[in-house]
Design brief:
- The chain is an alpha+beta fold and 167 residues long.
- The protein has a domain of 106 residues: 3-Layer(aba) Sandwich (Glutaredoxin).
- The protein has a four-stranded mixed sheet with strand order 2-1-3-4.
Amino acid sequence: MKNIIVIILAFFGIAGALWVLSAVPKKDIASTRPAKLDFVAEQQKDTSNMSIAVVPAERVEVFLFHRTQRCTTCIAIGKLSSQTVEERFGSEVLSGKVVFREVNIDESQNKDLAEKFQAGGSSLFVNAIREGNDNIEEDLEVWRLTGDEAAFKTHLARKINSLLGKK
């Protein structure tokens, strides 16, 4: 009987101690850190939501990759992308600053290009070339916009203008 009472008292004693410790306010870790480390922490802040100035692209390439068998949406993306580039970037197309290409990945001559872009099927990629380096980005938003021609063209034109450093 004594053993049971001792165990119960020990249990409540430990539980009470844990409850008291959980109620003690925690110290702000930053206030105990040396000032030198504050500088390092400042440099490591998450900048994913911050606007970062980017060097304008020397050239923008828009690639629509597809297979021989194409769905209606893939065909629409090709048509709208081509129209956007022709209608809104005519002078840039003539100067070679903006390029649009449709690429059938089922054709052997396009294998290397498809591998470079990691295109395995229907997809739209935009490549901003800066200082001779590729900056390839797949645009997934276009799939959602195919039903709204104006929104599609506005979206793609904004993306290209942004990469060219235009507003």
